[in-house]
Please model this.
Amino acid sequence: MTDPLLDVRNLRVAYPSAHGYSDALRGISFTLGREKLGIVGESGSGKSTAGRAIMRLLPPKARVSADALRLSDVDLLTASEAQMRDIRGGRVAMILQDPRYALNPLKTVGAQIMESYRIHTRAGRAEARDRTLAMLEDVHIRDPRRVVDLYPHELSGGMGQRVMIAMMLIASPELVIADEPTSALDVTVRGQILEILNERVEAQGAGLILISHDLPLVSDFCDRVLVMYGGQVMEELAARDLSQATHPYTVSLHASLPPLDHAVDELIVPEYDPSWLTEIRK
Model:
C-alpha cells in the first residue's frame, strides 16, 4: 500500500492501576486504505482501545505513544485539540454499538444529525435539514419527514442504528470506525445494517474499521482482518482466509464457536500460551 489512509506503527496504550501502569495495547501496527478492515478478539484484547486511540478519545490519564499515528497528512499524536474537534466526525467518524446510549435523549434525531452536519460544513439550517432528510433516505428509513422529529426512545433498535450511521456519515468522513455496530440487533436486522453501512462507505470512498467478536461476520464483510489478544496483533490475514488461519489463538477462537449443525454439551475454551505476549511480530 503506497499511500495509506491510516498509518499506525507501534501504538502503545497503558492505564493507571494499583501497581503503576497496565498495558492495554502493546505495540500494534497496521495500515488502512480505502478498504474494510476487521479487528477481532476476545473482550479485553484491546480492540476498542485501538479505535478510541485513533480518535484521541482515551481518558486523560492514559499513556499513549507510537512511532506513527497518522491520518493521511495529519499527525494524530501531535494534532491540537482544535484540530481533533474538526477531525472527529468530519474526517473520522465512530459508530457505537447501542444508539440508546450514544444519542442524546433530550434532542430529536433530526436536530442531532443536523448539528453534526452544520459543525463540519458550516451549512445553514435549511440546507442541513434537506441534507438530513436525504441522508435518512440513504440509510433506508421510511418516511424520513416523520422520523426526523422523533426522539431516540421512539426508535426501534434497527432504526436507531440507521440514525447513528446517518449522523456519522453525513459529513462524508474519510475513515469510519464501527465498534460492534450490530451486537444489540437480531440476525435479520444485523444483515440490513451491515448492507447499509457497506453501501454508504463504498459510495463515499471511505475506509472502514469494523471491531467485532463475530468471526463469521467479519470473514464475510471485510477485506482484511487483525486478530488481537492481550493488546497485541497475533495475526493479520485476508478475511476470506480467516477460517484457514494458522495461529493457535485464531484456531482456538474458531473452535470455541458453537456449531450450527449439532448440539454440544460444552463449548471449547481457548487455551493460551504466555509466549504470545513476548514474541516479536511483524
